[in-house]
């Protein structure tokens, strides 16, 4: 993937020098890191959003009163010009350039870029605690994407081998959620889920995630058209990653079988299908997963 010539976004918020995040609560100090790791693993294996598990545990233990206590910063700050930070900033810059152009053209909506927060281990977010075990996520409450870059190590080890375009796909997927937010889709989905049972709401969440995959493909199509970012083999690596992180693949690897009603992001085949749809069309309207 060609990214070195891209501009770096100014919307990267680097918190990696915070010393591992914060605790929740007054004098009690909140959940311990061991409990958080266990809840994260439970979420990973069951398909339940770890943020829900952690939030519920905080309520049960009386530690979730919303007061954040920051750990002291380390004596040495994280270098701001390390290669992976540069990569993330440049990919974010590419998403800004593409969506600033095509969102008004295709949907008549002005694109307002989100912040992307880099952190190590844990940090605060407008949606509660951000933990590395959650993987990258978008928080509509504060309009920010949260990324612990150790996820890229997991991609290399577990999810199709990684590679620059595969990493960019992950970032573009989260930016896709921001595009959904700007189009009013996330708010409508939340309203609809409030009237549904758990299985129906989960199925709707999957459609949101598949649409974000498609929007990542829309970004890649237009970035390649304007800036020639793709090299031979890039698309195949991204599709391999989409397949590797399908819920059926992850659940089968974890416990020997898959439970479709508990899927959170979609099957391997569905994730590949919708990423490819965006890559082929370059059009936001091709990503209407809610009609399928």
Helix content: 40-55%
Q: Tell me the overall shape.
A: globular
Average pLDDT taken over every residue: 79
Note the main sheet. Answer: 4 strands, mixed
Q: Give the helix/strand class.
A: alpha/beta
- Tell how many strands the DSSP assignment holds: 8
N to C succession of SSEs: EEHHEHEEEEEHHHHHHH
Low-confidence segments, given as residue ranges, are 20-30, 56-78
What is the rounded distance between the termini? 32 Å
Short description:
The protein is of the alpha/beta class and 292 residues long. The chain is 52% helix and 10% strand.
Structure description:
52% of the residues lie in helices and 10% in strands. α1 crosses α2, α5 (164-182) packs across α7 and α5 (164-182) crosses α8 (234-244). With 292 residues, the protein is an alpha/beta fold. It has 10 helices and 8 strands. It folds into 2 domains: 12-21 and 71-291; 22-70, no CATH class. β7 (137-139) and β8 form a beta hairpin.
Strand and helix layout:
Blueprint (H helix, E strand, L loop, with lengths): L11 E3 L7 E3 L8 H14 L3 H12 L6 E3 L12 H25 L7 E4 L3 E4 L2 E4 L5 E3 L4 E4 L2 H9 L5 H19 L2 H9 L4 H30 L6 H11 L2 H9 L12 H14 L11
Parallel strand pairs: 1-4, 4-8
Antiparallel strand pairs: 2-3, 5-6, 7-8
Helix pairs in contact: 1-2, 3-5, 5-7, 5-8, 6-7, 7-10, 8-10
Core attributes:
single chain; 292 residues; alpha/beta; four-stranded mixed β-sheet; two-stranded antiparallel ribbon; 10% strand; globular
